[in-house]
Amino acid sequence: MTKLWQYLGRPAHFQFRLALALSAVSGASAVVLLGLSGWFLTASALAGLAGTGLIFNHLFPSAGVRAAAFTRVLSRYGEQLIGHDATLRLSASLRPQLFSQGARATRGLSPMASADLSLLLDDVEAAEGGFLRVIAPAASIISGAVAATALALATDLLLAVLVVLAFVLAAWWLPRCAAKKSRIAAAKHASQIDDARERVARLVENAVELDVIGAMPDTCERARKSLETQQVELDEMERPFRGLGAFNTALGTALALAFLARATTGAVDLALAAGTGLAVIAAFEACAAMVKAVDAAPRSEESASRLLRRLEAPGAIGEPKQNASVQLGTVFPLKFDDLIVTAAERAPRIGPVSGQIVSRSLTELVGPSGSGKTTLAEALMRLQPIQSGALTIAGTPIDRLRVATVLEKMAIAPQFPSFLPGSLYDQFYLADPAVSETQIWEALEIANATDFVTESAKGLKTLFDDGDGRFSGGELRRIGLARALLAGPQILVLDEPFAGLQPTLAEEIARRLTRWATDGDRAIILLQHAPTRFEWTGLRRNLISLAPSLP
Asked: What is the pLDDT of the chain when averaged over all its residues?
């Protein structure tokens, strides 16, 4: 956890240290409160029984009890407030870097697999909660044990030694042994949870297909059994920690009785023994939380290590350092000669292909499904590594350009665009956070989408709660096209933009895109199964045919 925190630049280091100090104060003040209260009440009772209650000075002890109580409450509240604030600051630093690194480590525009995403979310939650579940509780427990030991030393040296040994046993050795046994079960649980996660993800993602072929009941049963096995492994993982809390309480109670027994022999003061006994009980009850901390520590540490490996992993595409990269004023001309790319390391080769994209041009990448149109387009966008051949943008070799530099000048409208929960207006923030409503309507006009957006009951405020805002597939593609246009690209990549559209509507959108391209220093790359029959007047047309990819 510490290595991950240092890698992120030690975010909120002052808040973490302050929260740690407050946690220690809270733990110590809780023990002192019970110890002082026990001593005060016992001493008051003894003074009353001896007939000296009237001359017993209760002001200072009662003030001390109140001070300990206020300190405990305020430090506990402050530790929770500041600790959660520090954790949120850590999250604000960690999550964007994970998102950025995840994008760099992924080839093309393919989304992360559901199982990997679920594991990543689990790791983030465990690592971010490391301070609140492990470090802060440990500080509170240790400070409480120190306070109880100090009171024990002031009462009886021999019993104080026993208290220290008991703390070592209850707060360190037993939880450590339990954690060792738990780690063996944790390894099995991790393997099982990956299997269960994959089965459930496959079930959700392919529910329609499984239902069509009649495989839904069998797949559901296998997923259920996998989840049940995962629960059994979880139970095995938690078994070593059961009973430790009751043992700690019993041990603390036994030591408290030992102090009282010593007091009955006259070896120690009875009031001091009573106060120390209560303090010891409180400290050992708090040690029960150490069990949870020791249990959570390996998970948090392993999750933090996995996240650190993700952050340190090299990108899928080699990039020059920021100070050695070239900035682009334009992407034209974009030239590729004998270019060969693959969708994955061992996937079939695509190419070789050659061509040139200039301003006010239309390049059609044509081929059947699986021929590599999208992969080739992603390579031109610097989102896929090049196996061989040459690719230059504005005369600059592609290996001297950073991905972000190229993407500033290019945008894609995919065949199946993705949308985030929120309003239709919110979707366009992905293209330009400073976009105005006027610009949105202009982009919707080019995409021929103003009519159905206007007819929608809430217009730009239509919610995408279910991912599609109740728009049809063709309407979603046009919304995705408008979003790509708002990014202000010089090269616009369109993946099957006319699929499922009526011929007259498709031709109208083509005319509007033609005007958009010829109205500036722009070009269009069109991914289609067959060449379009539109005129594209004013655009220089290039046709690149791709054959199906072969192993």
From this structure: 87
